[in-house]
């Protein structure tokens, strides 16, 4: 006899009691995993709805993997901690505006209305294969980008600034952000240009003037590829401003078409070029990465800059020694 497949259906469930019963029953029948995506009110609803929480704890004890993404805030942090204690693998994404779940990668459930500390009043349930697969793919992408709950909780409790890493494609936004970073610097600005043309484009955009107008207490260091035809000209532009220091690294140094801007060793903007022959940044720039992540700032822009800076100083000393000899 042929094996009959489960018919694909989509239904809407109404009423708090019916929804709680459906959710608890679904959890009790899980075979492998359940993924959930809540807004900030979700954790309180999960923890305070006794039949659902009980079913989830029992599922963990059976070896079911429970993943959850939510907006962890000062208001729901206690509920999130309780969920972690119950066995949820929890991660953080800010400002979520929807709530849905996927059971065993086969059934989608969407909470239409969520109210603080109350169960939902309406649920949409679907096992339409292609739809569920699409939602699962979306969830997996969000999971990979979400912050571990433990880190977010530590940020809240210790008053730390949340880490972020953003990819920016709009050249206008990249230019504005770079100038805003320069203006906001309190202690130091470091800029690495991988090409001389990159410096010339920013000169035309107003970078030199902006650097000269920054707070006099801010130290500025600039790295450029060595070019005997342009070194003296570039130095002349900053001659009267002794707090702005320029060094040149040898062109033989391995490099990619990147411009990096770091302020106060806390914020970095890494700009990737697509066509260095263009006269303006809007045509030359491909994209940029903006981050305050300590690991990103120090493993890439800051460490590369400091290495090239020291190498440039050694090269200067060698050239001086050669002239003397």
The share of residues in extended strands comes to 15-25%
Q: Residue-averaged pLDDT, rounded?
A: 85
Assigned CATH superfamily of the largest domain: Endonuclease Chain A
In CATH, the architecture of the largest domain is 2-Layer Sandwich
Question: What structural class should be given to the helix and strand makeup?
Answer: alpha+beta
Total of helices: 13
Low-confidence stretches: none
Please, how many domains?
Answer: 2
Can you summarize the main beta sheet? 8 strands, mixed
Q: What's the shape?
A: elongated
Question: Could you please say which CATH topology of the largest domain applies here?
Answer: Endonuclease, Chain A
Q: How big is the Rg? A: 27 Å
Say how many strands there are: 15
What level of helicity do the residues show?
40-55%
Describe this structure in words.
- The chain contains 13 helices and 15 strands.
- The chain has 325 residues and is an alpha+beta fold.
- The chain folds into two domains: 10-158, Endonuclease Chain A (Endonuclease, Chain A), CATH 3.30.870; 165-324, Endonuclease Chain A (Endonuclease, Chain A), CATH 3.30.870.
- An eight-stranded mixed sheet has the order 1-7-6-5-2-3-4-8, sandwiched between helices. Strands 9-15-14-13-10-11-12 form a seven-stranded mixed sheet, sandwiched between helices.
- A hairpin with a 3-residue loop joins β13 and β14 (267-273).
- The relative contact order is 0.10.
- The mean pLDDT is 85.
Question: What is shown here, in short?
Answer:
It contains 13 helices and 15 strands.
